[in-house]
Every structure is written in C-alpha cells, then in structure tokens.
C-alpha cells in the first residue's frame, strides 16, 4: 500500500461513526420542557387554597362586606372590613365604643325558615365569608354603647346620651345627626349589649326593638368579632380608628347609688 493510501486509511479509522462525538467531548442531551400542571392538579390546589381561606375566615379573620349606610361615616356602603374573631376568644368581652359584627337572630330578627336551597345557601355563605357577597340577613355591624349593668339614657339637656350618669360626646356620629330621636332609659342586662349605628337617623338598631322580647339587647355570645381593619377601598386601607368617647364612664350602677 502506498504512502497516500496509508494516510487515508488512518484518517478514516480516527473518525468516529456518524452521529457519535469523540470521547473527549461531553454528551449533550437537550433539556425537556417542563410538563404543564394537569387540570386535576390545578383543581386540587385551587380547592385546597379555598378551604384554607375559609378555615382562616371562620376562626381568625373574616372579611365582611358593609351592606348599608347605618355606620356612616365610619363605615361606608361597599367597604370591606376585617373582623377579628380572636378579639373576644380568650376571656375579653366587647367594650363600649367597639364596632362589632353580630348575629341578630333572636334580638334584631326572629328566626325564620329559609327558602334557599342547601347548595345555594352554602355557596352564598362561602362567598360572604370571603367578603365577596353581602352577609347573611341576620348579620349586623354596630357600635357598642352599653355593656352589661350599664344604664343608658337619651338624652340629657344638651341632647347627649348618658351612660351611668356620664354624658357622652360622640364625634363619630354622621354629620347633622342627633344622638337619638327616640327617648329611652334602659339598663343593659348582664351578658348583653346595647348597640347603635353611627348614622343614627339611618340605623335600625337596639332602639327599634324596645318593647319587644329581649328589648333590643344583643347577647354577648352572638358577637362574631370586632371590626379592627379596613381592607377596601385601598385609599382607606388601615386599622379602624378607635374612640375615647367612653373614657371616664363610671362603673355600672354608680349612678343608681
């Protein structure tokens, strides 16, 4: 074999077979695209997140859609507030000036049979618990004016409420509203609350149930929680401003000797 033929033979023997790289080069395998999440897995995680939100709303912090203007100017129609369900869970009780959400069944409304089917009621309740729909017709938001043992009177010579003989100036009232157009003199039974809306001329509250069974008093155990934060609209986002209107109120019974 001549020299040129020998060189060609060596060149062929040194070339790897087609499609196979030399051993000194790393083998490259193209990355596989990530498989998209399956429909079933998406549904599973969506349901899991929904259940977690519902549990959080049930036991810790519940969004609440304000359905009426009875608490203006403090709360406006369409506001989303956050109700602290732990506020009274560990021995604390509602205090004068607190804004609370409560179940008015038996105090503000009588218990009635609902015509809504079970599934519809469940979906509506879930939406309300997430602040996406109006609350149940039995849920109300008002301000605590009197607690168990308090004597609440309307009104003194200057038109102010009196609690245990102490006049109360209420800066949170709707502009132009008087503390009450209805005169009353009541003693709040232990374990109950006397509640009123800040928009007194546009609020159906404890005053509307004077003379009825229960006298408009809300049992403490019916309180769902305290309104501590405004969540919507974003321009009003933040904690709900408290009030010192009831600072200095004498203990219950002090005005009765």
Domains (count): 1
CATH class type = Mainly Beta
Query: Which spans of ≥5 residues are poorly predicted at pLDDT below 50?
Result: 19-26
Architecture, CATH level 2?
Ribbon
How are helices and strands ordered from N to C? HHEEEHEEEEEEEEE
Strand content: 15-25%
Q: What's the end-to-end separation, in Å?
A: 133 Å
Radius of gyration over C-alpha positions, nearest whole angstrom: 34 Å
Total count of helical runs of at least 4 residues: 3
CATH homology group: Umud Fragment, subunit A
Broad structural category: alpha+beta
Q: What is the approximate shape?
A: elongated
The average pLDDT score comes to: 82
Number of strands: 12
User: Which fold name fills CATH's third level, the topology?
Assistant: Umud Fragment, subunit A
Helix content: 10-25%
Q: What's the story with the biggest beta sheet? A: 8 strands, antiparallel
Record the SSE blueprint.
Elements: H1 3-14, H2 39-59, E1 61-65, E2 80-84, E3 99-103, H3 118-129, E4 139-146, E5 151-154, E6 161-163, E7 166-168, E8 184-187, E9 192-196, E10 218-219, E11 223-232, E12 238-239
What does this structure look like?
- This protein has 257 residues and is of the alpha+beta class.
- It has a single domain (39-256), classed as Umud Fragment, subunit A (Ribbon).
- It contains three helices and twelve strands.
- The chain has helices at 3-14, 39-59, 118-129; strands at residues 61-65, 80-84, 99-103, 139-146, 151-154, 161-163, 166-168, 184-187, 192-196, 218-219, 223-232, 238-239.
- The strands form two sheets. Strands 1, 2, 3, 4, 9, 10, 11 and 12 form an eight-stranded antiparallel beta sheet that branches. It has a four-stranded antiparallel beta sheet with strand order 7-6-5-8, with no helix packed on it.
- The protein is elongated, with a radius of gyration of 34 Å.
- The termini are far apart.
- The model is unreliable at 19-26 (pLDDT under 50).
